[in-house]
Amino acid sequence: MNIYDQLGSVFSAALSQVVMTSTGVSLSVLSRENDGHFGRLLGVMNLNGKKSGMLFISAEESDLRVLCSKMTGLPPSEVTVEDIEDALGEFVNMTAGSAKLRLSDTGFLFTLSPPFIIEGENMSIAVKRKTHVSSAVLGDGNITVSMKVMY
Questions:
Q1: End-to-end Cα distance, the chain
Q2: Among 12, 58, 68, 141, who pairs with 136 as Cys (CB 3.0-4.6 Å)?
Q3: Domains and CATH numbers, the chain
Q4: Residue range 37-46: average pLDDT?
């Protein structure tokens, strides 16, 4: 496993921990492949440092609604799009923060930008050759969350 795959493992473990801690849902890695396509809501954070990167987390709105409901205690029918956006922003923020802590003894030191949400249909991310990309699809049989880290 190369260093970038190891970084992907650190970020996917951080995401799994964040979701478990905040919602009680246990996500495991279903695949290390992600075709680059995302759901309608995409949480993003810049990782700024000597080796800068970006973190992307996405899921279908229905899956995010369930996670947000578990996170806030609101019934799913009362969860608004704004609530979902806030929850996704928190997942991105906490995942990046957890990964940053886990990587503190490595050469991958970075500061975090504020998280932001991109909304759209049929979104995908294309990268230049020589960009290191680590992907993961996590799930529990009912909920699926996609993650991509680029350096």
A1: 16
A2: 12
A3: 3-150 (3.40.1550.10)
A4: 88
